[in-house]
Design a protein that fits this description.
The structure is a single chain. β12, α20 and β13 form a beta-alpha-beta unit. This protein is of the alpha/beta class and 610 residues long. It is globular, with a radius of gyration of 29 Å. About 4% of the residues have low confidence. It has two domains: 341 residues, no CATH class; 249 residues, TIM Barrel (Alpha-Beta Barrel). The protein is built from 22 helices and 13 strands. The longest helix is centred in the first third of the chain and has 48 residues. The strands form three sheets. The chain has an eight-stranded parallel β-barrel, surrounded by five helices.
């Protein structure tokens, strides 16, 4: 850090540190991967199950999940999990620093030394991680409140879909303010983390308490924060860039393997799984090990600049000529089991699944104005299996098709649908915004759409519950019952309690919970199907739902590669804005053999050309 300090000198010193301790650092990394994969993740899952049980739920989803996380027990759970994540990261960084220090001696550290370095003064590490996390949360709170105030001031006058779709000046102003808030919050948190970057080496090398280590770190960083920050952030930038390079290289390698490495899909997929797992392990090892070694070397340089005595002795560590690779003989086989476990899941791809059902989102919303008779007719003409429609209630109790809580986006009318009568609603033009061919298109009633669809297409009727009005649920149940439409529709919504009430009013109805976020095992909830946001659906959720004989629908999927991916995984229904494309992809998928399906899905998942 003095006048002779150069970033090149830092890089060379860190490289030498790595070379002298690379074998034990690799073993340490394997140890932590074992702990994370086989202990931490199961403990988190068990903890969540226990917390939900204590709270009286089997699972919570959507807004209920946010409400749960804002409850005292939910806040406690989130705090414990976040703290555990930070503490585990600090443990690994402490291990890296301690082992690098020991490796500079003539003797190699034993396995006991490795484990000791993994948990130097464990409670101090726990306290340090907790204090850092709490401090970051407190520092972030004003920015979060400012973001909420911005949202309430600029984006709450109309339905949020209007702002997202039309992007008026208020949207761009809110986005600009939000970006500025995010950048400001990031700068504040980065400054805090840089000032505390020496806290961990101070604690493990100088035997200081957690709070004292934070204070000492802040003092020693003063006057050198730019150089320390650039060094650490520069490393993170480099490793992020490395991640992109490795991903690009893997795609090139995967394309070569899929094209030229024989005819066996099993052999090809196993090669790709192994290589991908190896690259991920390398990236993780390089990122964390480099961060630990750079932090330690910066700490030593700063001490030298300030004329401080070097206290680089990790309390409780012992040295031995025994290198202790025996643990690796246990850890490595367990880690290598992962590709084998994945392969058992891949075998499901080879099995035949029933052809996926196609649902046209808001009717055929690429061919006609959404939630109109024209959109439903277009969905029928495309030969979709279902048309998804959204329903709301007017002030005088008529159930109509509309997605937003107000008419601003589709009719230019700022009033909420719940504040005006149906006679007023049916005068509004909801087709002109889409194109001149649909001028004069009106908001249809649910009765009209059911009569239009009966015997021609099934309906996915989504209840839009925007407030405390309880009239919508019984009225929808009545309409479906009187028109004898139960066998040709499903009723879905984000609100689980509304589905329970609907089922009570009409037990013949098939109900589905729409899920954007959830905690716990949602498959236990008393519904017939789940309509899941595409990037939230995991194989575990899919497997649990099918085990309980419940369908899984996924929304909203418009990319052919994603469509094939979900077909491969065995979902029952895909909701899309363009059913014509999905039907074409489905027909192509059905025509392939099992081996061809596997290879095609692999190409698309990797983003490769067919």
């Amino acid at each position: 850090m003095n006048q002779t300090f150069k970033f090149v000198d830092l890089a060379l010193s860190v490289w030498n540190d790595f070379r002298s301790s690379q074998r034990i650092l690799i073993l340490c990394n394997l140890y932590y991967k074992f702990v994370e994969a086989w202990l931490i993740v199961p403990m988190i899952a068990l903890g969540l199950a226990a917390v939900l049980t204590l709270a009286g739920h089997s699972a919570v989803s959507n807004w209920d999940a946010f409400s749960f996380l804002l409850s005292p027990i939910g806040i406690l759970y989130a705090a414990v999990i976040s703290a555990a994540t930070v503490v585990l990261l600090l443990f690994e960084l402490a291990s890296i620093m301690g082992l690098a220090s020991l490796a500079e001696t003539d003797e190699r550290p034993s396995m006991r030394a490795c484990l000791s370095a993994a948990f130097p003064r464990p409670w101090r590490v726990v306290v340090l991680g907790t204090v850092i996390l709490v401090s970051l949360v407190i520092a972030s709170t004003p920015f979060v409140l400012l973001a909420l105030l911005t949202y309430r001031s600029l984006l709450s006058q109309h339905d949020i879909n209007y702002y997202v779709t039309e992007r008026p000046p208020a949207f761009w102003l809110a986005a600009s303010i939000g970006l500025a808030i995010l950048l400001a919050m990031s700068v504040v948190e980065i400054i805090m983390l840089v000032r505390w970057s020496f806290a961990l080496p101070v604690m493990i090398f100088e035997n200081r308490s957690s709070f004292a280590s934070l204070g000492i770190s802040n003092e020693r960083i003063r006057g050198a924060s730019w150089r320390v920050g650039i060094s650490l952030l520069g490393w993170l930038f480099c490793t992020t860039l490395l991640g992109f390079v490795l991903e690009a290289g893997f795609r090139l390698f995967a394309g070569f393997v899929l094209e030229y490495a024989g005819d066996s899909p099993v052999f090809k997929i196993l090669i790709l799984l192994t290589v991908q797992a190896g690259l991920l392990a390398i990236w993780s090892f390089v990122t964390l090990t480099g961060s630990g070694l750079i932090t330690r070397r910066l700490y030593l340089y700063r001490n030298q600049e300030l004329g401080l005595i070097q206290h680089e002795k990790v309390i409780g560590l012992r040295k031995s000529k025994s290198f202790g690779w025996s643990l690796a003989l246990v850890i490595v086989p367990l880690l290598l089991m992962t590709p084998a476990v994945l392969w058992t899941r891949i075998r499901q791809v080879m099995a035949d699944h029933p052809p996926v059902k196609v649902t046209a989102h808001r009717g055929h919303s690429r061919a006609a104005p959404e939630n109109t008779i024209s959109a439903v007719r277009a969905a029928i003409e495309s030969k979709a299996d279902y048309a998804e429609v959204d329903v709301l209630m007017t002030a005088d109790g008529v159930v109509v098709l509309l997605h937003d809580s107000d008419l601003k986006r589709v009719a230019g009318d700022e009033r909420k649908i719940s504040d005006i009568s149906f006679d007023e609603v049916k005068k509004l033009d909801v087709g002109s915004w889409f194109g001149p061919d649909f001028v004069g298109e009106r908001v249809p009633t649910l009765d009209e759409v059911i009569n239009q669809s009966k015997g021609r297409i099934k309906l996915n009727i989504e209840l839009k519950v925007y407030g405390p009005d309880s009239r919508l649920i019984p009225e929808v149940a009545r309409i479906i019952r009187e028109l004898n439409f139960e066998s040709e529709c499903i009723v879905t919504t984000f609100d689980y309690d509304s589905l329970l009430e609907l089922k009570r009013l009409n037990p013949k109805l098939r109900t589905g919970l729409i899920i954007a976020h959830a905690l716990g095992d949602v498959s236990r909830l008393d519904v017939d199907l789940f309509s899941v946001r595409a990037n939230w659906l995991s194989d575990q959720v899919l497997r649990q739902a099918h085990r309980r004989e419940k369908e899984v629908h996924v929304w909203t999927v418009n990319d052919p590669a994603e469509m094939l991916s979900f077909m491969k995984r065995g979902v029952d229904n895909i909701i899309t804005d363009d059913p014509d494309i999905l039907i074409s992809v489905r027909n192509q998928w059905i025509s392939l053999s099992a081996s061809e399906r596997l290879l095609l899905a692999s190409r698309l998942l990797l983003g490769l050309k067919q």
